[in-house]
Specification:
The complex is a heterodimer of chains A (376) and B (321).
Chain A (H helix, E strand, L loop, with lengths): L1 H4 L1 H26 L9 E4 L2 E5 L5 E5 L5 E4 L15 E3 L2 E5 L5 E5 L5 E5 L13 E3 L2 E5 L4 E6 L5 E7 L9 E3 L2 E5 L5 E5 L5 E5 L11 E3 L2 E5 L5 E5 L5 E4 L13 E3 L2 E5 L4 E6 L5 E7 L9 E3 L2 E5 L4 E6 L4 E7 L6 E2 L4 E3 L2 E7 L4 E7 L5 E7 L4
Antiparallel strand pairs in A: 1-2, 2-3, 3-4, 5-6, 6-7, 7-8, 9-10, 10-11, 11-12, 13-14, 14-15, 15-16, 17-18, 18-19, 19-20, 21-22, 22-23, 23-24, 25-26, 26-27, 27-28, 29-31, 30-31, 31-32, 32-33
Chain B lengths: L1 H22 L4 H15 L1 H27 L4 H15 L4 H25 L3 H7 L7 H6 L5 E2 L2 E2 L6 H18 L6 H24 L2 H21 L5 H6 L12 H8 L4 H11 L12 H7 L6 H16 L5
Antiparallel strand pairs in B: 1-2
Helix pairs in contact in B: 1-2, 1-5, 2-10, 3-4, 3-5, 3-12, 8-9, 8-10, 13-15, 14-15
Classes of the chains: A mainly beta (376), B mainly alpha (321).
Chain lengths: 376, 321
């Protein structure tokens, strides 16, 4: 009876509910696209390859055939998201998580050895960790640099604080840590004490890229669209790139024969003289933004664009050729590339799955069949 | 199509937001507030048009309800009579919807750009770079400082902010909700009055706080605009000091007969004066806003007559008891 008298009201309620659902889906859809998934690169130690998958697991694979040896998902938290490439030192594999925790697992089984902090968590960790002389170093979104004992996971020195988020991976050279921050600065810290050696503050934008240290110089790209060369001893500017890119420098540059190859989000690879910053050749234009770190294999720079194309740039003539297009498989590439014994390992991902490719760096042929890493 | 949308209106809004923040001490919270005020200001004429059209439609609701009842079995005749009523009263049903439809893409672009600029995750920041224009300031400003007042604009689940969104939306809705003696209309009004604030309050908990801030600011601006356009607090004033009653179906039987013969708003005016009570004077619809309508206000002569009479009754005629 009530329904009969209120049919119009019910219809309007239903219409309103439909609008609410559509609105909710639209809003959550826009927001949902930005859910963190991670873009861990791969690393090789002995005959094992370690990589973080987009479902938050650390995965160990046999380097020779791609067979999965173990996944750590039962050992570490399921909600972990890994952006930084894992690091192997001794019998442990180290990885930082977007959940604000650093994990050390045994390289043979993936069993958890320690986690830092033991209680609670830090702000998200986006950059990778580095291990040197029994210490684990990493930067965090809280703007601090941490140093832990690699065996126990205990903090060694009071964390050094920068002015903004740190999303890059620190680089160790001798007794010095180089790390960049969103506060537009590049820092050089004493690896033993965490004290500041110098700070470079002449960049005009935030720095998310990991520095390259080569020949007493730190090379770093900034959001102000310039590449900088900084003296490792004094922290003074050696040069700022002659050319201004169209977009941010996000990926770490590589060097070969005193030439810097700097990928940019404008889809170009800038080719600069390491001593002067002048362009030694016109920038090579690829199909889409480049955010993954490149590698050098036998005189060729292997570069991956976000849309899944893997290119080989011949350093002798700066000609570029397409090695493989994993974009055809619906995959994109954000993770740093990894090279070993003439092969390049690429961690590609789509919205709900990720795949590890092993390609011959010269021919682009598969070394072994692509391996699906995540179970999502 | 989606790419065109993202690289067009969304990119325009997004780059404007970032550039504007450079003049506002790099505060993204302040930028959201200022840009919302600018856009709401630019769309003020459309908002006013929509409010007035909505008000005119509300004034016709009793007659429409009666027509629906009378011609429930003759849809064609009902449509004809409704069209006739609209035509004679000079009210267009599209008058409410068109300004809103025009504004919708701008709101969607604004909130999508806020979400993108906040760049909560590394993927979002990386994706943002695709839509940046070659203005140096845009590159220098990013990533923006997401802290504003006591909260992080990029974080979620800020309960005080969600309550603020829900409360301001309730006030906005309440101001434009007419009181009616018709149980069905009252149910619908109550449903809208509570459903929208609850929904937006709930969604505000799930989206980044920057978006919730935008909703809260936008609601406050709506309240201010409505105050001036409606000439007072509208439904809020009625809630606090008596009720203006939109006549129920039973109250307007006389008007049905008039609708069949010579529908005119002046006749309706007489009915409303008869069926309304002294509480009409407390109605927010009888305030400063009517002064504007005396001068025309975009209304047809029939509606202007209705409104001017209403105003006259306020100060110069003894109340009926």
């Amino acid at each position: 009876m009530w329904i009969k008298h209120n049919r119009r009201l019910l219809a309007k309620v239903l219409l309103l509910l439909v609008i609410l659902v559509i609105g909710g889906v639209t809003v959550s859809g826009c927001y949902g696209r930005s859910q963190p998934k991670g873009w861990s690169g791969a690393i090789i130690a002995d005959d094992t390859l370690f990589v973080g998958s987009i479902d938050g697991s650390l995965v160990a694979l046999n380097k020779s055939d791609g067979n999965i040896l173990w996944t750590s998902e039962s050992e570490i938290e399921s909600e972990m998201v890994i952006y930084g490439t894992p690091v192997v030192a001794g019998d442990l594999v180290y990885a930082g998580g977007y959940n604000g925790r650093v994990y050390a697992v045994t390289s043979s089984t993936g069993a958890l050895r320690w986690v830092y902090p033991r209680e609670g968590n830090l702000e998200p960790i986006v950059g990778g960790v580095v291990v040197s002389q029994g210490m684990v170093y990493f930067g965090c979104s809280d703007g601090k640099v941490y140093a832990l004992n690699a065996i126990t996971g205990d903090r060694v020195w009071q964390s050094f604080e920068t002015g903004d988020k740190i999303w890059s991976t620190p680089v160790i050279d001798g007794e010095t840590i180089y790390i960049s921050s969103f506060d537009n600065k590049l820092y050089a810290l004493d690896a033993n004490t965490g004290s500041e050696k110098w700070v470079f503050d002449e960049a005009g934008g935030a720095i998310a890229a990991t520095p390259l240290v080569y020949n007493n110089t730190v090379y770093i790209g900034s959001f102000d669209r310039y590449l900088y060369a900084v003296d490792t001893t004094s922290g003074s500017l050696r040069w700022r790139s002659e050319v201004e890119a169209d977009k941010w420098f996000w990926a770490k540059p590589v060097v070969y024969n005193n030439v810097i190859y700097a990928p940019n989000l404008d889809g170009r690879v800038y080719i600069l003289d390491a001593n002067s910053g002048r362009e030694v050749a016109s920038a090579v234009e690829l199909d889409s933004p480049i955010s993954s770190d490149a590698v050098v294999v036998d005189g060729k720079v292997i570069i991956a664009s976000q849309e899944g194309k893997i290119y080989s740039l011949d350093t002798s003539n700066n000609q570029v050729g397409l090695l493989r297009n994993v974009g055809d498989d619906g995959q994109e590439i954000y993770a740093p590339l990894c090279a070993s014994d003439g092969a390049v390992y690429i961690h590609a991902q789509s919205s709900n799955q990720d795949t590890l490719y092993a390609l011959n760096a010269q021919t682009g042929l598969e070394v072994w069949r692509p391996v699906s890493l995540s179970s999502k | 199509m989606l790419e065109l949308w993202s690289s067009g209106p969304v990119a325009l809004m997004l780059n404007t937001l970032i550039a504007l923040s450079s003049y506002l001490f790099g505060s993204f919270g302040l930028t959201i507030i200022v840009l919302t005020i600018i856009i709401r200001g630019a769309m003020y004429p459309l908002t006013v048009k929509q409010l007035r059209a909505t008000r005119a439609m509300q004034a016709l609701q009793p007659k429409i309800a009666e027509l629906q009842k009378k011609y429930a079995k003759d849809k064609q005749r009902l449509a004809q009579e409704q069209m006739k009523l609209y035509k004679e009263s000079g009210v267009s049903p599209a008058g409410c919807a068109v300004p809103m439809i025009i504004q919708m893409p701008i709101w969607i672009a604004l909130y999508q750009s806020i979400i993108r600029v906040l760049a909560v995750t590394p993927e979002a920041l990386l994706g943002l770079s695709r839509y940046l224009w070659s203005w140096p300031v845009v590159y220098f400003m990013l990533p923006l400082d997401s802290h504003f007042l006591w909260f992080d604009l990029a974080a979620t689940s800020n309960m005080p902010l969600a309550i603020l969104v829900g409360a301001t939306m309730w006030l906005t809705q309440k101001m434009v909700t007419p009181t009616t003696t018709d149980p069905q209309q009252r149910s619908q009004s109550q449903l809208m009055l509570w459903m929208m604030p609850l929904m937006f309050g709930f969604i505000a908990m799930m989206v980044p706080n920057g978006l919730a801030l935008y909703w809260a600011v936008s609601n406050v601006i709506s309240i201010v605009i409505q105050y001036f356009v409606l000439g007072g607090w509208g439904g809020l004033a009625r809630a606090g000091a008596g009720k203006y009653v939109v006549p129920s179906s039973k109250d307007v039987k006389v008007r049905v007969a008039e609708a069949e013969t010579a529908t005119s708003i002046s006749a309706m005016e007489a009915d409303i004066v008869d069926t309304g009570s002294t509480e009409e004077e407390e109605s927010g619809y009888g305030g400063a806003g009517d002064k504007r309508q005396l001068g025309g206000g975009g209304y047809p002569a029939s509606l202007r007559a209705f409104k001017s009479r209403s105003r006259r009754s306020k100060g110069h005629r003894p109340k009926r008891r």
